Amino acid sequence: MPAPTGREPAIGWRLPPFYCPDERGELLHPEVEKIEQRALAWVDEFDVYPNATERAWGLACNAVDYSCRMAPRGDQDILLLFILWNYWATALDDWHDSGDEGTGAADITDHSARLIRAIEAPGSSMLPQSRLTASLDDLVRRSRQLLSPYQLRRFGEGARDWLLGASWQTANTERGVMPALNDFAGMRGSVNGTRFTMTFVEAAEGIHLAPDVLYSAPVQALTDAAGFVVSCDNDLFSFAKEDHLEVPDQNLVNVLVHARGGTPADVLPEAVALRDRAMSLFLRLRARLNEEGDAELRRYTSALGYYITGFIEGERTAPRYASPRNRHPLPVPGAAFEISYRDTPSDPDPGPPPIPSIAWWWDQLAA
After folding, report:
1. What percent of the chain is modeled with pLDDT above 90?
2. DSSP-derived secondary structure letter, 4
3. pLDDT of residue 99
4. In this predicted model, what pLDDT tens digit does every residue of 16-27 receive, in sequence order?
5. Average pLDDT of the residues of the chain
6. Helices 32-45, 76-97: inter-axial angle, 10-degree rounding
7. Residue 247 neighbours by CB distance under 10 Å
8. CB proximity list for 120: less than 8 A, separation 6 or greater
9. Residue 228 to residues 184, 244, 273, 329, 356, Cα–Cα distance (Å)
10. Which of 195, 261, 297, 359 has its CA 20 to 30 A from that of 124?
């Protein structure tokens, strides 16, 4: 596979080793090629992307690969549905980031509210007719066929959380605001769509946790910690993709530069240390929950592990990040990061960081 090329990003192309003692993305759904063929057929049937160039960049997110690693034993139809939503969300995200007319914070907030209503009440006719609306209608129809009422409710909550995060991030950009570390850490899981993702992973793998278990503080802390680790990893893989922006992208590295001063390379060790402390907390809290919980809870905590490892492997080989469009006219086939792993955290401190919005996760170890 070709290595990343083009202008060297401020944090370098060779990323720091990833602390991840779990299985490292080795498991892949056995029907991945068949699922990919079905996904591409849907993308082209509904013209999800406006032209061939946008189609190439949308597919370069590697949604099929990382989805099939997050749910390696999942139901094919639900896994396909998750991938289609990811392709659609990528198209929406690219529109949000385009700077075109109608992509201001107020416009995106209005569109997000209408989008949620379209998901929860099909036929509401609150969105203008467009290629994205037509494909959305099909996705909603498929979702209502495949998901149970409870799963649909979970999906609606996850979509609302993701769109809230996107609106918050857009408002910050429009105002020229780089969020404080505490605010960023508290919102990062929403921006990344953690609950959106886990709804489909649970459904595809047939995981059915009782609501009182799923929404308990320790399980929610574990879910949030997994989402934070994934978000930190995304911020590293995608750093080069956004490093041309006049208003710096809201990622962990830039947030720390804004707070501490210096350069992205200067704060990179602190960013990795914070990520590793969250990973350490995840592993310790998961072990406690696995010891005290039943088999279904262990299946859920295992799925969170696949969420982390599948995302690392999927983004490692995603041309969208390894050959970003601010350096290449089209994705470079096979472009990939060369990464390494470590079995110990870069920061061994077992306690919470001085970040109130996430420090409560560590409280759950003694809950």
Report:
1. 82
2. P
3. 57
4. 999 998 877 678
5. 93
6. 50
7. 14
8. 156
9. 10, 25, 13, 31, 14
10. 195
